[in-house]
Design goal:
The complex is a heterodimer of chains A (398) and B (386). By secondary structure, chain A is α+β, with helices and mostly antiparallel strands. Helices cover 45% and strands 14% of the residues of chain A. In chain A, a hairpin with a 2-residue loop joins β8 and β9. Helix content of chain B is 51%, strand content 15%. Chain B starts with 6 loop residues before the first helix and ends with a helix. The chains are: A alpha+beta (398), B alpha+beta (386). Chains A and B meet through β8, α10, α11 and α12 of A and β6, β9, α9, α10 and α11 of B. The complex binds flavin-adenine dinucleotide.
Amino acid sequence: MDFKLDPADEAFRQEVRAFLKENLPPDLARRGACGFHPIRADQRRWQRTLFERGWGAPNWPVEYGGTGWSHLRQFIFDEECALAGAPATDNGGLRMFGPVIYTYAGAELKARLLPGILKGELYWGQGFSEPGAGSDLAALATRAVRDGDEYVVNGHKIWTTGAHTCDIIGLLVKTNPEAKQRGISFLCVDPATPGITVRPIIDIGEAHSLNEVFFDNVRVPVSNLLGEENKGWTYAKAVLENERATSAEVPLNKRKLAQLRHIAMHERSDGCRVIDLPGFAPRLAQLEVDLRALEWLTLRALTEKSEGAVLPYGSLLKVRGSELVQRIGELTVEALEQYGSYLYAEPGEDPDAKPDWPPGPDYAPGVVADFMYRRAATIYGGANEVQRTIIARSFLGL
Amino acid sequence: MDFRLTDEQEMLRDSARRFLEKECSLEQRLHAPVNGGFDAARWAQFAEMGWLAASLPEDCGGLGGDIVEAALLMEEFGRNLVVDPFWGIGVLAAQTLLAADADKARELLPLLCAGELRPALAHHEVQSRGVIEHVTTQARPAGDGAWTLHGEKTLVMGGNVADRFIVSARTSGGSRDRQGITLFLIDANVPGLQRRDVRLIDNRWSAEVTLDGVRVTSADLLGAVGEGWAALEYGHARGLIALCAEAVGVMERAMWITRDYLRTRKQFGVTLNTFQALQHRMAEMLIELELSRSMVYRAMAYLVRPLAARQAALSVAKARVGQSGRFVCAQGIQLHGGIGVTEEYSIGHYFKRMTVFENELGSAQFHLEQLALRECAEPAAARAQN
Ligand SMILES: Cc1cc2nc3c(=O)[nH]c(=O)nc-3n(C[C@H](O)[C@H](O)[C@H](O)COP(=O)(O)OP(=O)(O)OC[C@H]3O[C@@H](n4cnc5c(N)ncnc54)[C@H](O)[C@@H]3O)c2cc1C
């Protein structure tokens, strides 16, 4: 064991920090740090900046335009970006789908799909879940029938985050309805294709990120098939593992905890800072304890992964990370008290629109919307109940 | 002890349940336009059915009931997440007025019972955080026995439709002294008063009220100068119990909605209710619900006790109900999966209501702190409390 941080990694952190100071525009940072869903235009702008610096894909190998950074450096980078309030980069393209594309796709598809992700021009939607296929994803029923060099797709996806602003959808379809997992294929679908209808779903934060997507005789070129027909489950599992690998969201939780501290130092009870109320600081300390435990579990997961993981880290981290983001949100709403009950409407995609918000401090808008949205943290990416079953079965042998 | 309802109480509950299910269900409202949460015709019906009178004494135009009636109604409101300002006007303001000034109560409460007067309590301030005696709004002497009011009141529930405000202001003392708080009853459109309506996340409405030199005289007084605290405590005690009763209704309905969903939603070829992990979660939800209900009963029983014991019981109730309610409603969402976080579906709204509950009249944390202070200050008294 060697617990020392390499001085070169610390120097790297300083480099990232300096870059952010120099290049992250304040308007982006302001919107990135509040809890509303990120604006796509902000994400595109920021991804372009990162790309130009050569940091477009921290987690990809150099041959595909990535940085080739160690896991630790990626972690440091994510943390610095989060703390600076940088808009979330495209988790779908960079972390979930990109790696699956360069691992499994043929040369043509790789050349077509990877550069756009790097430049912030190709945002991904995840078209997996269906009304009848949530936790039981393999029960999906969206059908694709081959017709010459096209597939004809019919079906209904739900919970597709960002379908209304994405450039491509990673779609799971049944190509062999007789089989369950082994009848699934993976298509890369342009959402502008005729026959696709996107219907918004508003979440309980009164914000829009979710959608239903309907496919009515949608023709998709066979060249958009990822890998082999009926092997889609393998790719889907890889996507989901990638999703969970970062699902503890330690950098995000750090930012939120920092925000909570800030709020607790500014909200007051008859002049007394909320953070100084007798019951408050112990709860803050508890969150700190839980965040640190999660952080070091993440560091273990990142470093041990290279030697073939044994623990189902993804599931461990998903369960506790999602609970933590909810608990931080809960205490933040409490710290805001009445402003935690006020409805601050989501500003929407137009960065220049002036929202008509009720009175309150600058840090209030977005907190409750995010708190509400994060009820889903224990649901999306595989519900926690299902993760616990995975832990019990795959590792404990129960 | 007897926890059964009287026949009249049962009738009140049943008729309220029938009416609200039919007229005020969440499903109806979700698609209705946002109208400030107020429907004048329905308010008139509340009056007609005697709901506004249910927990007021007969000499004030009431039906002679007490807190039990208010709690029964509020529980029904909670089940349907009713947004009409019954609590703000019909409980908090009405009960405060009742305790503040017997003469004015006899004069004005009959109008309130009839639905013709809608006073709201403009008492809470940004830095109150659960402390009733927190008042920084000033009543400055302006000669001839008059005062001018200066200050900001927030989270005035029902304030958006109020025609009168009961305003608490300091005529003496520091920001958290019990002495020196004076209550005034003022017109909603009096010069110097500014109102900003605020929609809450649970679709109820409140108002922020700014008082900038509002002129009042002794004719506007409720009760004696400097003696307003007792009436505020009386109103808040009843308001808190009513709020907790509402939360019990919220929790109970959230639990049954979830139970029903588990019985119908299929994954892996079976309905979700067959998974033991989910059965156990639901069992926990029921336990939390019934513990909360018990705390509401206890708080009602303690209303007649001396101040310290009463306040302790209220704190116990608010803390317990807040914690349980959050658990029950959060798990309600969780067991629904994705559909639970959508605005179109009901269960998330139950969670939102409980979130607002925590931000009203002191959070669970605040009330735990009150109890902790009591443990330290008078451990013997805290322990002897039966
Ligand atoms: C905000 C949000 C964003 C999302 N984004 C996307 C996206 O971009 N793309 C996409 O494809 N999907 C997305 N999803 C869908 C997500 O993956 C599913 O919601 C999730 O897999 C759960 O499925 P479900 O909603 O159908 O719930 P169900 O599967 O119906 O589950 C309901 C409840 O039952 C429990 N349960 C189910 N099976 C079992 C079992 N065997 N044992 C014990 N308990 C069980 C669950 O844990 C849950 O509590 C998103 C969801 C949300 C809420």
